[in-house]
Amino acid sequence: MKSPIISQSIQMKNKNIHYLEAGQPDAPSVLLLHGASFRAKTWEEIGTIKQLTNQNYRVVAVDLPGYGTSATISDEPVQFLVKLTDNLQLHNTVIVSPSMSGRYSLPFLIQHHESVRGFVAVAPVGILKMAEKLEGIQIPTLAIWGSNDQIVPPSQADILIQTMPNCQKAILKNAGHACYLKAPNKFHENLIQFLKSLK
């Protein structure tokens, strides 16, 4: 049975935050964030939501505040993620975080790692700034990069490997910063393999 992708929104500070959701509510959850040039819909367009629901995950792809059809709100990025995961009951979730969304995911990881089941770092910004605070965090992590990334160089994946003891790396050949656009099949293959490895 196909799982429909449903467009929904929740209120935060009387403002609309939009997200897409698919899969069974009681299935293991995956939260998809996005980069500055993208939105929740990107994950639908490249097939990520469908691929993950086919593997029996509950998937939530959010339009971060001020992007897509979500309003801008005054919360700090980490406060926003706390409220979002609480409201949508995304406990023990896997966070997939490309590019700009590192401003949300990395501080959340540092402060609330007990509520994260796994972390997929897709060349997120902020690694250099936060490397010291990430040191020793045990969350299973996949660092996935395009080999031609000119914005967040692949060498930053090695920083995650050095600081986070449970981190593995995947480099997608000939892909750039948004490696999931250039090599969606390889991206999905690595993502699903990582998710299946989680206990």
From TrEMBL:
Keyword hit for Ion transport: no
Domain AB hydrolase-1: 30-124
Main location: cytoplasm
Record keywords, A-Z: Cytoplasm
Gene3D superfamilies in the record: alpha/beta hydrolase
Localization per Swiss-Prot or TrEMBL: Cytoplasm
Keyword hit for Heme: no
Record-stated family: Belongs to the AB hydrolase superfamily. ABHD14 family.
InterPro entries: AB_hydrolase_1, AB_hydrolase_fold
Stated name of the protein: AB hydrolase-1 domain-containing protein
Naturally occurring in which organism (per UniProt): Limnospira platensis NIES-46
Pfam family, one: Abhydrolase_6
